[in-house]
Amino acid sequence: MPHHYQKVYQDLKSQIQSGEYAIGDYLPTEKMLCEKYSIARVTVRQALNELVKEQLVTRIQGKGSVVQPPRPTLALLSIKGFSEAVGKENRKVTNIFLKPPSVSNFPKPFFYPLTDAEQTHSCLYIERIRLTDETPVMLEFTYVPLDQIQDFDRSGLINNSLFKTLEEKYKIEIVGLEQDLRALEADEDTAFLLKIKHQSPVLHIYRRYRTNVPFLFIYSSLFCATDKFAIGSAW
Amino acid sequence: MPHHYQKVYQDLKSQIQSGEYAIGDYLPTEKMLCEKYSIARVTVRQALNELVKEQLVTRIQGKGSVVQPPRPTLALLSIKGFSEAVGKENRKVTNIFLKPPSVSNFPKPFFYPLTDAEQTHSCLYIERIRLTDETPVMLEFTYVPLDQIQDFDRSGLINNSLFKTLEEKYKIEIVGLEQDLRALEADEDTAFLLKIKHQSPVLHIYRRYRTNVPFLFIYSSLFCATDKFAIGSAW
DNA sequence: CAGTGGTCTAGACCACTGG
DNA sequence: CAGTGGTCTAGACCACTGG
Fold it and tell me: N or C: less crowded end of chain B, CB within 10 Å?
């Protein structure tokens, strides 16, 4: 913890998360924090602004810094039983790869417009089924452009998670998402893999994830059986 | 423009947006900006940090401040023709109210768990159809709890937009979203209103919007005909 | 009115990047 | 090495909230 503002930030954050300051409570004033830590006010403000950025705290001029109710963690895809609706835990999900991740070119035409760099380089292609309680709920086709990622190690995904692998090995994080949604009748292959009736409704999603690397996007096409579970997303 | 940092922020922002500084360009150094505006470095940094917060700029220690590629504007619901995929303009949408907005109680059971305050107070209820090019694409049922909103003026929504009305009249802004998605077969009423075949697939979405007011949520239930258009969302 | 956070000054030392 | 942004000090005046 090399910096003063980080110390103040961490202290306040853990006090909030432990409930020492409850939702709606006022944090100590800037002046009190200056005195407690023997630091300048600018430094205290730097710590408080971090908390504001994380939406843990709102500052009100003339009054003080108020602890905010927690915002839901970012969930891009969660699987919920109908009775759970929201707020409850999501279901555990198992992944089955239909075939090992492979390196190929982007198919043409592709469902999102691609940059020249993406088109002329290869991509990592992943086909998998996600199951919950042994019920298949999602068929997922994912494309990771390799023009900006050197030496992608196909040998394994950490925890079977592409996003965790990208984060830990390459420091690539998801920072945003565009998606296009529609309801379709399941074709024969999809119905077979998802173990639902031919022509029953399936949720289809095209996704383009933005990352912290400029111009690096990750693309997915998803087919979801929503007869037993709903698909959740949040930000 | 009362504050120095706002002046610097606005100047840089418009220079970026006009293309004076292109993506990947370096902005003037903090020192240069201090001299140009005759202000302290802390003030220049405040301006630059605003740009970082908006993801227009990334700062690199030892190098400078780099202009970032624009991120897509937040779109909670957009309607896209299939050929457009993404990146193109969204379709113009018309609203038709099935009946005038009314004040009532929340139905029981409700599709999200409600707080006591919400349950014991009334809510504004809105039923509308959204059309694009005279084709109905979405049936929307929206519930706005009134326990924290005083004197809601039912007389009219600004531009027919609930969100714009909340923002301009009550300074309530949407800051987040949870949603649950599924594909269903259209029942008779829904099929009739959306002008689609009975039992054809429809996209159904439950939504809970978070606002900048703690514990004030806005709820929607949406039925979307996705045979001609896809439903987009982004953050 | 006293107390709060918001803006600002004019410096300082440091860590990092590139030549 | 000179130049960059990151952290920090010890003040100042201001706008806003509530009693």
Answer: N
Return the structure tokens found at A7. 């110390």
Per residue in B91-108, pLDDT (tens digit) is 778 889 998 888 899 998
Name residue A33's amino acid: L
Tell me how far apart the alpha carbons of residues A174 and A197 are, in angstroms, rounded to a whole number.
34
Give pLDDT tens digits for B116-171: 888 988 899 999 999 988 899 999 999 999 887 766 665 677 777 888 888 777 77
Chain A contact set for B71 (CB, 8 A): 176, 210
Distance CA B41 to C1' C8 in A = 10
State the Cα–Cα distance between residues A205 and A183, nearest whole angstrom.
Answer: 9
What backbone phi and psi angles, to 5 degrees, belong to A227?
A: -75, -30
Please tell me which of the candidates B178, B200, B230 has its beta carbon nearest to residue A180.
B230
Tokens 């075949």 belong to residue: B197
- Buried b or exposed e, range A174-199, using 16+ CB within 10 angstroms: eebbbbbbbbbbbeeebbebbebeee
CA dist B79 and B194 (Å) reads 15
Give whole-number Cα distances, B137 to A5, A205, B74, B134, B143, in Å: 51, 17, 21, 9, 20
